[in-house]
Amino acid sequence: MELPIIHSDGDPRLRADVPLSVIIAFDQLTDEERRHVLGALERIERDGLSAAGLDVTRLGGSLPLYALRAAPNVVVILHAEPGQAVEVWDIAQPATLESFAHAG
Q1: What is this structure's pTM?
Q2: CA 72 to CA 98: how far, in whole Å?
Q3: Does 1 map to a domain?
């Protein structure tokens, strides 16, 4: 299954095949939220994680994980190894992530 990401120049900075859980989460978004997510992911595919205007935060821990605030109520979790395609690992609401952070 794939999110509809079009690679502009054949450079696969963004891996479009994603886990089923991401597809399910994406399907729960409003049309406007989907447009924001796809627009942000297309910018990452084109310009990388440092694309101007994107709200990307490196998450703690040993894995190279990043939180992309794609819309006011949507955070996309990305895995980004240097020199490899950026992978979408999850889509969540900020409140959900905050509850997990305080659960431990």
Answers
A1: 0.78
A2: 14
A3: no
Over residues 19-55, the pLDDT tens digits come to 888 888 888 899 999 999 989 988 988 888 888 889 9
- Model confidence pLDDT, tens digit, residues 64-75: 999 999 999 999
Determine the Cα–Cα distance for residues 24 and 97; give it in Å rounded to an integer: 17
Report the CATH number at residue 94: 3.30.2310.20
Q: Which domain holds residue 23?
A: 14-103
Pairing of strands 86-92, 14-15: parallel
- What distance in Å separates the CA atoms of residue 60 and residue 65, rounded to the nearest whole number? 8
Instruction: Please state the length of the chain.
Output: 104
Q: Which two tokens stand for residue 68?
A: 């992309």
- In angstroms, the CA 65 to CA 88 distance is 10
